[in-house]
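Trying the structure run again after the queue cleared.
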Amino acid sequence: MSNMIHIYPDSTNFKDNAYHAVHDRHLRQSLRTAMDDLTKKRAASFANEQELQDLRALGEQIRQYSLAKLPQLLVQLEEKLTENGVKVHWAENAQQACAIIHQLITDKQGKLMVKGKSMVSEEVELNHYLADRGIDALESDMGEFIVQMAQEKPTHIVVPAIHKTKQQIAKLFHENLPDAPYTEDVDELILMGRNALRDKYLEADVGLSGVNFAVAQTGTLCLVENEGNGRMCTTVPPMHIAITGIEKVVEKLSDVLPLYSLLPRSALGQNITTYFNMISSPRQGGEKDGPQEVHLVLLDNGRSQAYADTQLRKTLQCIRCGACMNHCPVYARIGGAAYGTTYPGPIGEIISPHLLGLEATKDLPTASSLCGACAEVCPVKIPIPELLIRLREEEQRSPTEDVVHPLKGQGAARTLSETLAWRTFTGLFAGAKAYRVLGFMSAHLRGLTPKYQMGWTINHIPLKPAPKTLHQMLKEKENKR
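Done. Tokens:
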């Protein structure tokens, strides 16, 4: 299945993608049901409001402290992991990350990789890279397994197949798994998937996983999961490769506890996950399981751009819970595929411009109502609306303007017509005389107001000047006294 080509929209066509998504009845039904369920479960898991706010404040403090010390913590993490017998590799971009992993596999003449859940591996499109070089990469997370079989990509960072109905999954399994009967019983479908994957762990040459938290002080890789597939991927194959973004590091184990308390409750309304794995070394003498080699790939891929700016650095506080998506009115109507990026929804709107550049993501910062729901539920208090406004400014900024920390693709959404329009607006409103003349002319020529006003009239009535200006009404009121 890893040789299949993923069908995925392009982020540069966001508006068209969104248009088609809102007209997909099955998608809308799946999303509405799932979002309602997830938001209710989250609310129930945080029944004590004071506990929630205290935890959020602590989570924000831990993430900001970790980021403030990020360069030192990364060095400490590498030193401790190396001391523990884990080999650390640094990748500046997606190409380097894929090349490193490919080399590690080919050094062992590997042909099959079984994967636990890893959004970073999706980010670098590792499956495609390996498939082009004759190596199969099989997703073992059930949601990822489903979307890989469907030749798609995840549309949610926690629940990858959230856009699928059970009828669609039943049909998919019936057509692709040997001797699989058609059934809409969810438990039977899960069992079919498990049976199809079970032997693959033993056959695999390499297991790959993501990392939820990397602890610098102890050299520990923490992995949060519910299905047990992550534990199988990291213990059964002879080699384990972990891949993560450079921002996932924290200083000490005690920092993990509040974040772990926030993560599953924010993501799924679950007090604790079924499995919490802590990996510090390869198999030691006398141990009966575990890989003979453990490697960690630390990926930058645009994260240092966000890190360089003190305001945009807050983007990197994210612990990938997906709560912002679950509460976003835009995501709830169009789903994750429409964004055309690995990270959809509000968090994707602020992190994807750093990973892909503003040229490829210029529509994403404006794909928000700025209602603030994402910021209200974020477990580490990322001010997402504030960062969206900042990115909107950056994509409208002149490409030639000299700034301290320029973003890749600065000025991507800037157009000559819009620039001239704002200059005209500024000129008309800069002086009192010009403003009064504009108001007088607008009131008297209001009958000429066009019925179509670009994007505004898609779902609004046309804007029409009032028959009298405010100055006129105030003057008339004054004359009546």
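Strands lie at 87-91, 112-115, 136-139, 206-209, 213-215, 220-225, 239-245, 249-250, 275-279, 293-299. Worth checking whether this holds up in the mutant runs.
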